[in-house]
């Protein structure tokens, strides 16, 4: 399984990563610069202090017959090289580099001119030290060295103070940028909400006016797409209407000519054949209507044919006019029990829904049976139901009959198997629930379509 | 009577012509809206059978032009569209009746007859299924037997006969017949219809009940 779907990128996350990265870089650079500055400050402060004892010692070097020696009492020397934090040592060498006084194992200082002094880093017993070296006019070299503890402490303190301030500024900028981006992305959020609340049928353009220039082109492009969709929809609708006409007109002609033939004297076998042809023609017409209804129910509705307030009673009444003659022919008692049931829907599709339910009921109900169409509201939910006294649909088949072209095996009649699929499609489109059950324990079918909620509107009797 | 059939499908147009010729009408055919429009401007027709889907322009447009000229020619619309709004649109534009394709020959014949009956002066008696209706004299005869009808029963019969094969709701009956009187309940309508049905037996069995809704005058093999 390859489930390495590309992760959606987030503008905010990318921005955050960039901001944190650059902030870290800036803080690091600041730290390096601060370190050098702090080191310089610490050295220039402490180096002067380190030079003082070297000068004192150099002033007190005496040359006599014995040789060179420091003319200072032990206590004074101790005081000169005393420090609370660091270890301080000194060394005095003669012009010939012989050790006159102090520690013996401090390496000689690098070469430099007499009368000058010099600071440099060295090491003593493996420990890093700072050395102040002084060469007197007579060539005697005095070195005073101290360990780096207080210098390091000073550098650390400066560094921490500086870094805390820089880090606070960096964090503050990230937070501000985050807030700014969130605010800046707000129009996108509004756009998202507007798109989310859209129904599939709603292809109106998005409002362009108050959007920022970064989003406006996106909205304009989107509106162009919506426009294309609307056009495609209109085209499809027009195609459907034409197809309906093109298919049904020749079928109507065929049916008419067959019926005219029936009026002649015909041999029985010819009449039987013609009747079969007639039946097939009627079925083909019905199938054409149903296929178009199904295509219609699936297509996004046309602009201007959006949902309207419709009364199921009105729609069922209109279908009553169409189906009553057929019911009389079939000797089926088609009856109505109509109460107001106002919903938001597409009347053309709803009429198709009722048509298919009645067609189905009449098709599978034997002569002498009853078919009843009912509309009304049950606990505030508008419904439409069609029940018949036919053989009924076994519970196991009730889900399958909603599939296209499914017919229960052994069913008499000439159904296409599309009727209930159309009903389901239209019910789903209206957010309605479709229930199929038996009228009573023994037989019969009741198909009930329950719609989401009652629409209350002024000027309508609800 | 002179009839104009406006239909672009040759097979259907031929069928319609045959049916109307057999009923004794003189039929002129047009296959385009333009041709039909010219014919309707220049010649006299008693009625038009008009297909809505024409190759050049909409049947609705032709109908609109016809009514704009204040022509009273009866128009029966044929439509391949089931949409209720189409029918309503057609009737609003001044069509007398409509049929949805496909339709049976019997139904077509009945609709044409009913449409012409509505336009005819009430002097001529109708003969319907063995029943002779004298509109001027408000008398009905079945097999030489004169039937006495109350004004309400008469109004009912007239309504049914001018709308054969059509389901008429009780609401519609109440509105169209009894407006001059106090409001009639559905139960009262049932009583009147039931009495009318008994009086015009055996033709009365054509007056069918659509349970919970209304009535229909069955065309049968009229």
Structure report:
The complex is a heterodimer of chains A (462) and B (222). Chain A is an alpha+beta fold and 462 residues long. Helix content of chain A is 49%, strand content 18%. In chain A, strands 4-3-7-6-5 form a five-stranded antiparallel beta sheet, covered by helices on one side. A five-stranded mixed beta sheet of chain A has the order 9-11-12-14-13, covered by helices on one side. Chain A has a two-stranded antiparallel sheet with strand order 1-2. Chain A is rod-shaped, with a radius of gyration of 50 Å. The two termini of chain A are 56 Å apart. Chain B has 222 residues and is an alpha/beta fold. Chain B folds into two domains: 2-119, Rossmann fold (3-Layer(aba) Sandwich), CATH 3.40.50.2300; 126-217, Arc Repressor Mutant, subunit A. Chain B is built from eight helices and twelve strands. Chain B has helices spanning 10-22, 33-42, 59-68, 84-92, 105-119, 151-162, 170-177, 186-199, and strands at residues 2-6, 26-30, 47-51, 74-79, 97-100, 126-128, 131-134, 139-142, 145-147, 167-169, 207-210, 214-217. Chain B is globular. Classes of the chains: A alpha+beta (462), B alpha/beta (222). Chains A and B meet through helix 5, helix 6, helix 7, strand 9 and helix 8 of A and helix 1 and helix 5 of B.
What is the fold's blueprint, element by element?
The complex is a heterodimer of chains A (462) and B (222).
Chain A: H1 11-59, E1 61-63, E2 68-70, H2 74-80, E3 88-93, E4 99-102, E5 117-124, E6 127-135, E7 141-147, H3 149-184, H4 186-196, H5 216-262, H6 268-298, E8 308-311, H7 312-329, E9 333-338, E10 342-345, H8 347-364, E11 370-378, E12 381-388, H9 419-429, E13 433-437, E14 445-450
Helix pairs in contact in A: 1-3, 5-6, 6-9, 7-8, 8-9
Chain B: E1 2-6, H1 10-22, E2 26-30, H2 33-42, E3 47-51, H3 59-68, E4 74-79, H4 84-92, E5 97-100, H5 105-119, E6 126-128, E7 131-134, E8 139-142, E9 145-147, H6 151-162, E10 167-169, H7 170-177, H8 186-199, E11 207-210, E12 214-217
Parallel strand pairs in B: 1-2, 1-3, 3-4, 4-5
Antiparallel strand pairs in B: 6-7, 7-8, 8-9, 10-12, 11-12
